[in-house]
Amino acid sequence: MSRLTQTLVGTGMLQVDAQTRTYRLAPAVLSLAHAMRTGSHVLAVAAPLMRKLAESQRINVGLAAPDRDEMVYLESIRYNRRIVLRHVVSGQRVPMELTSLGRAYLAVAPEPKRKALLAKFKQRRATPWAPIGQAIEDARACVKERGFCAAAWQPEVVAVATPLVTPDAIYVLNVSISTEEPLTKVVEELCRPLLALRLEVQKGLDAHTAR
Q1: Which bin fits 156, alpha (ψ -120 to 50), beta or left (φ > 0)?
Q2: Is residue 119 located within the same domain as residue 196?
Q3: Quick check: helix, strand or coil at residue 93?
Q4: Do residues 68 and 151 both lie within one domain?
Q5: Pfam families of this UniProt entry (predicted)?
Q6: Which residues of the chain have pLDDT under 50?
Q7: Are residues 10 and 105 in the same domain?
């Protein structure tokens, strides 16, 4: 670990805080993130369409990808209808097993990968696994039948997600709002624009590939 840390310091990825004798990420890490974002053809296609939907519907729109047992936002455009304390930005991580993003990914993930993740979630959960496991299976069935799944893992926030499968990776699009309305009503309101967004993004990616 010490050698690895020194290597990261030497390459400019970590900085040493002389006062606290601890390490922090260096500016070079931000440049790596910027290079990833600007080099992603998925983001290039999806981001303008996501912003258009967010502005027209006044909803939050996100694009995420899996990283180990979490989902990482690649893009997050926030247009909350109500004032909320939670803000989501690019690079933010959310639990895979609790969120619509994660459950949509699990619905289409390769079977060995899905089983390994489920086993990991079950092992580390102090709370009863059965309700969460059933919710994941229900989400999987909903994705198969209707193309999306929904979750409300935080109070008064409803999110609907749909997988975006590309030849290189699996991404997930989601839309969400802060509301006190019933989950079923909100889901029916959000699923149509979400699925239309996925179709537009897929068409854009197909056109990019055909060039």
Answers
A1: left
A2: yes
A3: strand
A4: yes
A5: IclR_C
A6: 85
A7: no
Query: Which pLDDT belongs to residue 188?
Result: 93
> Where residue 57 sits, what CATH number does that domain have?
3.30.450.40
pLDDT digits (tens, 9 = 90+) for 142-185: 999 999 999 998 888 899 999 999 999 999 999 999 888 888 88
The predicted model scores a pTM of 0.89
Examine the domain organization and report whether 11 and 48 are in the same domain. no
Q: State how far the Cα of 5 lies from the Cα of 23, in Å rounded to an integer.
A: 9
User: 19 lies in which domain range?
Assistant: 1-39
Same domain membership, residue 117 and residue 24: no
Indicate the residue type of 186.
V
* Number of domains the chain is built from: 2
> Alpha helix (H) ranges present in 59-127?
100-108, 111-124
Q: Are residues 138 and 184 in the same domain?
A: yes
29 CB-near residues (< 8 Å, 6+ apart): 13
Q: Which residues contact 208 (CB under 8 A, 6 or more apart)?
A: 41, 44, 45
Whether residues 35 and 82 fall in one domain: no
Q: Is 67 helix (H, G, I), strand (E, B) or coil?
A: strand
- Give per-residue pLDDT as tens, 34-47: 787 788 999 999 99
Q: What angle do CA 48, 148, 134 make, to 5 degrees?
A: 140
Cα–Cα distance between 186 and 204 in angstroms, integer? 28
For position 85, what pLDDT does the model report?
Answer: 45
10 and 46 co-located in one domain: no
